[in-house]
Amino acid sequence: MNTPEFDTFRTRKLAEGFDEVLVREWAALAQNTEHTHPFDTDAQVVHGEFWLTLGGQTRHLQVGDTFQVGRGVPHSEHYGAQGATFWAARRN
Questions:
Q1: Helix segments in the chain, DSSP class H
Q2: pLDDT class for 4, splitting at 50, 70, 90?
Q3: pLDDT at 2
Q4: How far apart (Å, rounded) are the C-alpha atoms in residues 46 and 25?
Q5: SS3 of residue 12 by DSSP
Q6: CA dihedral 35, 37, 80, 88 (to 10 degrees)
Q7: pLDDT tens, 8-48?
C-alpha cells in the first residue's frame, strides 16, 4: 500500500525520529491477546476497524484515527469484520 499518502506519513515520521514505518494488515476478527513490544509505535488507521485495550481503557479505532503505544506497555487488540490496516511508525 505505497500511496502518496503513505509516503507522506512515512517521510513525516522518519523526520520525527522514528526508525521504520510499516503497513500492518490484520485479518477479519483477528485477536491479539495482551502483549508488549520493544519499541514505541505511532500509527494511523487506514482501513477497517479495531478495538485497542491499553491501560484498562478500550478504544474503538476507525479509518483516520491515530494511536500510540509505548515500548513495553501491555495492550491487546481485537479486529472488526473487515479486519484492519494501519500505518505504524516504530522507534527503538
A1: 4-15
A2: confident
A3: 65
A4: 10
A5: helix
A6: 180
A7: 999 999 999 999 999 999 999 999 999 999 999 999 999 99
Q: Which stretches does DSSP call E strand in 1-92?
A: 20-26, 31-35, 40-54, 57-62, 66-69, 75-91
Show the cell assigned to 9.
506519513
Q: Give the separation between CA 15 and CA 31, rounded to whole angstroms.
A: 32
Q: What domains, with CATH codes, occur in the chain?
A: 4-91 (2.60.120.10)
Give the integer Cα–Cα distance in Å for 83 and 49.
7
Half-sphere exposure of 54 (CA within 13 A, CB side): 17
CA distance 12 to 6: 10
Confidence (pTM): 0.92
Spatial distance between the Cα atoms of 52 and 79, rounded to a whole number of angstroms: 9
